[in-house]
Amino acid sequence: MSYQPAMVPPKKNTTRTVLIVVGIVLAICCAGGAIGGFFLYRVVEDATGPAKSTVDTFAGALVSQDYPTAYGQLCGKLRDRFSQDDFARQQSNGSLPDGYEIVGLNVHNNNGRVSGSASVRYTLRQGMPTTQTYTLTKENGAWRICQ
Questions:
Q1: Is this structure's pTM higher than 0.85?
Q2: How many CB atoms lie within 10 A of CB 48?
Q3: Running DSSP on this structure, what letter comes out for residue 98?
Q4: How does pLDDT run across 36-77, given as a tens digit for each residue?
Q5: Contact 127, 120 (CB under 8 A)
Q6: Do the domain assignments include residue 141?
Q7: Labelling 87: which of 24, 49, 69, 147 has CA 20 to 30 A away?
Q8: Is residue 14 part of a domain?
Q9: What is the span of the domain harbouring residue 78?
Q10: Hey, which residues does 134 pair with through a beta bridge?
C-alpha cells in the first residue's frame, strides 16, 4: 500500500488583497480631493477675481498718482458727491503712498445683492504703513469702490 498525501487547499494571501484594495481606495480619494480642490479654487477665483482687479486698479492708480483712473473705479454715488478735480485735490493733499498690498478681500451674496470689502495696506513715503478698508459694490455688472 502506498502513501497518498492529503490534498491541501492553496493558501490564500488575504493581507495582500486587502492592501491592494485599500491602496486603490486611497488613490481614488486623493485624486477626488485634488480635483475637488481645483474646482473649489476656480469657483473662489471667479467670484473674487473681478473685485480684486478693481481694487488693484484703484490702489495702483493712487500710488502712481493717476487720479482720473482711480476716480473711474468709484461708484456713482461717490462720483456724484464730488468731482474728479475735488478727488484729485483730496488725494494729493494727504500722505502719498509708495506701494500697496491687498491684504484682505471678501465678496458677499445676500439674497442676490452682491457686495464686498477689501483691505489694502499702503506703504507711505514717510515709511509708515497704513491699512485702508474699502466697501465694494457691483454697479452695472462691474465692481466699484464705494466707501
A1: no
A2: 17
A3: E
A4: 776 665 665 556 789 999 999 999 999 999 999 999 999 999
A5: no
A6: yes
A7: 49
A8: no
A9: 20-145
A10: 118
